[in-house]
Amino acid sequence: MNRTPLKRFGILKMALTGLETMDQDEQGETFIFRAVRIAAVVALYWFVSITMVFLNNYLLDNRELDAPLFVTFYQCVVTVGLCWLMQLLSRLCPGLIDFPSVRFDVKTSREVLPLSIVFISMITFNNMCLKYVGVAFYTVGRSLSTVFNVLLSYVILKQTTSFQALLCCGIILGGFWLGVDQEGMAGSLSWSGVFFGVLASACVSLNAIYTKKVMPAVDGNIWKLSYYNNINACVLFLPLILVFGELGRVVSFSRLTDLGFWGMMTLGGVFGFAIGYVTGLQIKYTSPLTHNVSGTAKACAQTVIAVVYNSSSKTLLWWTSNMMVLGGSSAYTWVKSLEMKKTPRKDPQDSAKEKLLSGEKGNMGV
């Protein structure tokens, strides 16, 4: 009897289950269950992330309502409301839903405030980039997060980066400039969109640093952090909406009383809340490295869907720029994971800091 296929299947099962010895029937059942669960989690992450991007693009591309700050503000309001709802459901169904009980504390809110300022900058610039460049060029327009991770690691934490990782950053930069060049040649380049994309990328990196700094204030709980962060964001957005004249545009909007419009706005907020959950779920059931690979593949699929949906015609060099950005990002993640395996075990605090700055937490659905 040829045992080679069985051996290969057994090795694959061990890789997914993480167990070396197990009864054959039990191992087979566990492998199938884990494989289906991982596939379901990855599919859920892809669905939520891609849908969120297209929903935001739909809301921000509304020519009747040019109010990106208001749209972002409303999504933060929805997130706060969902946090309250999850707390209630957690008390009613403690065995089914696990969500921390949070009572608003002014002192904690002040401690989270520096992160909230970076946070509103990040989501605002992110949405502004999406508004001006569209979904197809969004991956390239927002591709410099990894490069800023390296720069900020050196400037703020005095951490040096290996030549291999710098080479990956060079590939990303090359893809970014090639993409900008090709968009310019096609006559569809928005310098405003590129500018906001660069700012959003920088804020993503800063957000990782400040997240690490304020985590102790919320007992290391990401949902508590999300709760305080979004409450602060709601307050900070109000004066910005007034200063930039968006309140008048919202009041004069013809569909202000349309339930369909508010339904789409609320749905955008729900998906914005859900992306945090499914991102954590994907990392939990796979690994930070697999999460990054999945995110890269998702970005590629998202770009293809946008091009097909808009019936666009793109040049070979345009596609090359996307592949350079995605390939460089994947290679950087792979290089950093190899370096972390070679490095002796560090204090958990230092290890967490390195993970945040190496981009292993991903881009939260973008």
From TrEMBL:
InterPro entries, A to Z: EmrE-like (IPR037185), Sugar_P_trans_dom (IPR004853), TPT_transporter (IPR050186)
One Gene Ontology term, aspect cellular component: membrane
Entry coiled-coil feature ranges: none
Keywords: Membrane, Transmembrane, Transmembrane helix
Residues covered by the Sugar phosphate transporter domain: 37-308
Family: Belongs to the TPT transporter family. SLC35E subfamily.
Protein name as annotated: GDP-fucose transporter 1 isoform X1
Annotated source species: Lates calcarifer (Barramundi)
